[in-house]
Amino acid sequence: MDVSIETVERTDLRQPLVAPTDSERKPQTKVRSLESVLAESNLPFRRRLYLGACIEMKVLFRLALPAILLYLVNSGMSISTRIFAGHIGSQELAAASIGNSCFNLVYGLMLGMGSAVETLCGQAHGAHRYDMLGIYLQRATIVLALVGLPMTILYTFSYPILILLGEPKTVSYMASLYIVGLIPQIFAFAVNFTAQKFLQAQSVVVPSAYISGAALILQILLTWITVNVMGLGLMGIAYVLTISWWFIVVAQTLYITTSQRFRHTWTGLSWRSFQGLWSFFKLSAGSAVMICLEMWYSQILVLLAGLLKDQALSLDSLSICMSISGFSFMVSVGFNAAVSVRTSNELGAENPKSAMFSSWMATFVSFVISIAEAVALMASRDYVSYIFTSDAEVAKAVSELCPFLAVTIILNGIQPVLSGVAVGCGWQTYVAYVNIGCYYVVGIPVGCILGFTFNFQAKGIWTGMIGGTLMQTLILLYVTYRTDWDDEVKKARKRLDIWEDKKEPILN
After folding, report:
1. Spatial separation of the C-alpha atoms in residues 322 and 96, rounded to whole Å
2. DSSP designation for 309
3. Taking CA atoms, which of 192, 275, 402, 421 is between 20 and 30 Å from 139?
């Protein structure tokens, strides 16, 4: 039996905007068509692989490219603050770098807790249980906003905390003022990340990318005015960044609540969202730990740099490298979002072969792209730092660190995608334990020994942390390879029955 691409490719796999009727569900969907191709025993293995790749690549890039744009823009908002700060002065660059690194603690917390919405909404959507998506969105927003309250206290007293960590007094004072200007962002994150996961679970990514793109343009324009015209310096940069994030929140909220595209998944505010908040918090906590441990890992490198001999040079060079790494990391995070949606949707639709195929396809594509990024970085290693600073000494230090950065970029081409598979399957708690062992038991201690005891400085710290990332990547590769995808389908069904207010799909 010969199967052509045309016979297995679904024409209606666009944004799942409305709940399908009974008659619309009779034709074979593209998700099930992929499953049927992969399960077709009459086809040679290479033919099945080719047809499956053709189908999956279209779906994967349709999700990943807008997601990459979205995360690049969001990352660009943070990077632009460092660029503006760097052109004010070296101390301002160091303060903005430490401030962003410290504030990324809450960024990681909110993003991590929001990934629980990604698991539940993705699997619920794949199982056609549409009404629960809006409930999950509201529950998650409430939980994240409550978690944000103690964070405001933490960042209000950031100055003594930075001093306690051994950071220079002048830089700590400037960084603490910068952080205070960012505090309203905490609650913007609480709304924004849950809304993003709500949209991504339905394969709706492009509108969020447009909104974030408009916010980035607004931020750059307003930052230039506040710094060069109004002379507000570092505080002006912080205020504008906060305003830009709230612009995203307002625009995205209006889009969800007013668009007819979500009339089956967003049915308005509901008291049901206040039910089971503690249980939802516990589920989100595993997600938060997984993501936070990953995001904080690289930020600790910047904080440790403040304890090295030449603090200003180390901070400036490492912060530039981390900015470049973060920019590259957003490409992998785009595939992370795409594979999370694909995996959770396929498991919810009870398609184990498609879930497995999507996982490995996304990992391979992201790895190839990361290789290209690393090669481009090494080719421009002597010039790339001048985007951030005109200091020749800093540029030389960045050039020396570029080989370490290239290895990090390659590893980051694999690890985030495997984490996306974990989110789609609901393995967050397990991955959190892996992260603790690899990052904080191995990576950071080894890095500190190499950096301080053996006096390899920044290179030693980074080498140890690369070792931790490599170990974690190998473990996740092994776990994904050994996964029983049929069993994951059963777990997804059980999870939906536990978390849903109704046991039956709303379409029945």
Report:
1. 13
2. S
3. 421
